[in-house]
């Protein structure tokens, strides 16, 4: 009896050992898959950025090229006037040249800021730094819009912004907050674009982007006039891998990542929705 009891305990421990090993291996595999999907979501948002950037960066570059060509012509004209001894005309041309150079400098910096935004977004990790939330919101709104237009040339929407000038700079990881804003806006664009396909002719896809400061927190709200979120799935929208998009059009990690990013900043994400009318996502970030 003692021998039989000993064998039973030994086999039981043996099975437990291999069962735990089996579970640990599968947990490790699932964690690896989750990390890969998270990276896929980041790459997807980076892809949307790239599409928007390709359009956004072309505009300032066009200005730089145009003003450069005009400036070269002005230099030739100025040299001719100098040869003729027409100092007054030469000075007038020099003044025009200065204005052109100022415009070239402005648009060159604009292109540089766009590239900087992309580099910040592509970083794996970052440090909290004083950040202009209004500037980030405005930047990512444009990038998201042109990113959507790159995917669907027929897309159009009315954009309304209301940025509180008294927010100041707050310490956040700027590329992470940018990723959240990009995700919320991109989702809103997708939703209003889908509604446009089946709505009445008078329907105008509209997005509202607002920032404000209340006490010790900054609030970013993204509102759309889409179809809203069904009550049946409202509790699931922040769950990893949950998506209402067709297969292949979403990883189901965008809102989950956004939620975790804001949570890591000590903030929270809330949602207010009405079926058939639209949805508002409210991001609250503490300033202290």
General description of the model:
- This protein has about 290 residues and is of the alpha+beta class.
- The protein folds into two domains: about 60-115; about 125-285, Histidine kinase-like ATPase, C-terminal domain (Heat Shock Protein 90), CATH 3.30.565.
- It has six helices and seven strands.
- The chain has helices spanning about 1-55, 60-85, 85-120, 135-150, 175-200, 255-265; strands at about 130, 160-165, 170, 205-215, 215-225, 270-275, 280-285.
- The strands form two sheets. It has a five-stranded mixed β-sheet, covered by helices on one side. Strands 1-3 form a two-stranded antiparallel sheet.
- Strand 4 (about 205-215) and strand 5 (about 215-225) form a beta hairpin.
- The protein is elongated, with a radius of gyration of 27 Å.
Question: What average pLDDT do the residues reach?
Answer: 80
Tell me the series of helices and strands, N- to C-terminal: HHHEHEEHEEHEE
Global geometry: elongated
Q: What is the helix fraction of residues, given as a range?
A: 55-70%
Order of strands, main sheet, comes to 2-4-5-7-6
Number of domains: 2
Tally of DSSP β-strands: 7
What is the CATH C-level name of the largest domain? Answer: Alpha Beta
Topology (elements, then pairings):
Layout: H1 2-56, H2 58-84, H3 87-122, E1 129-132, H4 133-151, E2 158-163, E3 169-172, H5 174-198, E4 206-214, E5 217-224, H6 254-264, E6 268-274, E7 278-286
Summary of the model, kept short:
This protein is α+β, with helices and mostly antiparallel strands and 288 residues long.
């Amino acid at each position: 009896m003692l021998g039989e009891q000993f064998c039973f305990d030994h086999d039981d421990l043996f099975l437990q050992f291999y069962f735990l090993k089996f579970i640990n291996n599968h947990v490790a595999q699932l964690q690896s898959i989750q990390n890969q999907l998270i990276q896929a979501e980041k790459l997807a948002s980076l892809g949307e950025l790239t599409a928007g950037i390709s359009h956004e960066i072309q505009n300032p570059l066009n200005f730089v090229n145009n003003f450069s060509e005009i400036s070269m012509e002005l230099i030739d004209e100025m040299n001719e006037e100098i040869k003729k001894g027409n100092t007054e005309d030469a000075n007038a041309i020099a003044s025009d040249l200065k204005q052109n150079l100022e415009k070239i400098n402005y648009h060159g910096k604009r292109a540089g800021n766009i590239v900087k935004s992309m580099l910040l977004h592509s970083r794996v990790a970052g440090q909290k730094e004083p950040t202009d939330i209004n500037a980030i919101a405005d930047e990512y709104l444009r990038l998201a819009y042109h990113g959507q237009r790159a995917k669907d040339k027929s897309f159009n929407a009315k954009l309304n912004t209301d940025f509180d000038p008294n927010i100041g700079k707050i310490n956040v990881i700027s590329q992470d907050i940018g990723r959240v804003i990009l995700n919320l806006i991109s989702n809103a664009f997708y939703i209003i674009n889908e509604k446009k396909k089946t709505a009445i002719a008078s329907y105008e896809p509209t997005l509202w982007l607002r920032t404000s400061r209340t006490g010790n927190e900054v609030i970013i709200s993204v509102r759309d006039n889409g179809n809203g979120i069904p009550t049946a799935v409202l509790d699931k929208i922040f769950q990893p891998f949950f998506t209402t998009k067709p297969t292949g059009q979403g990883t189901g990690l965008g809102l989950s990542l956004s939620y975790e990013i804001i949570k890591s900043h000590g903030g929270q994400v809330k949602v207010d929705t009405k079926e058939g009318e639209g949805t508002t996502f409210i991001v609250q970030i503490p300033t202290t």
